[in-house]
Amino acid sequence: MIIKLIPQRRDDELVVSKRGDVLTINGESFDFRELPEGAALPSSAVDCGFLLGEITRLNGDLIITLLLPCGADATDSANFPSDIVNPPDGNVSLPK
Rounded distance, CA 32 to CA 54, Å? Predict the structure, then answer.
């Protein structure tokens, strides 16, 4: 799994966990296990305001883009985030 982050100046909270290809975003689960290789699913097909762009599977990796809320005191790692590549199952550590 590759999670791309797009920072946006907002004060709301984003909490993400994963188990395989199932993401839980702010308490709501989204199951992407059935997305086949080479397929792309528009984020508009998923009712989650934090998912942006297309959700794709390439070379076996699920690739998603999440909006990352950044407060006024956000660090450089939050304002200029790196991709999160192959996070372990459990809570996903997001930059603050």
Answer: 12
Q: Give the full edge-to-edge strand order of the sheet including 40-42.
A: 40-42, 51-58, 61-70, 2-9, 84-85
Closest C-alpha to 46, from 56, 61, 36, 58:
56
Taking a C-beta distance cutoff of 8 angstroms, is the pair 33, 22 a contact? Answer: yes
- Full pLDDT tens readout for the chain, 96 residues: 999 999 999 989 999 999 999 999 999 999 999 999 999 999 999 999 999 999 999 999 999 999 999 988 889 999 999 999 999 999 999 998
Is the pTM of the predicted complex or chain greater than 0.90?
A: yes
Residue 75 within a domain: yes
For residue 68, give every residue at least 6 positions away whose Cβ sits within 8 Å of its Cβ, in sequence order, or none.
5, 6, 7, 8, 14, 78, 81, 94, 95
> Per the domain annotation, does 22 fall within a domain?
yes
The whole domain housing 51 covers 2-88
